[in-house]
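Run log, item B.
One chain of 68 residues. Sequence copied directly from the ordering sheet:
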Amino acid sequence: MSVHHTMGGIRINVNGQVLNKKGVPIKGLYDAGEVTGGIHGANRLGGNAIADVYTFGKKEGESAAKKL
């Protein structure tokens, strides 16, 4: 985890599914943490990466588990 994070990155939806160029979820592909983009817009907000890790990590784990 990090207090600072990168901007931009892989687009995801609210379930943590990776989206293709058309905005359609890619089946079975999830992503979380600072490699994702679009969460905070175009400005880095120090300290928010920690919330992303916990929130999206938990949510995506639950979403992925339902698909098994």
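Observations after the first pass:
- Helices lie at 48-66.
- The chain has one helix and four strands.
Flagged for discussion on Thursday.
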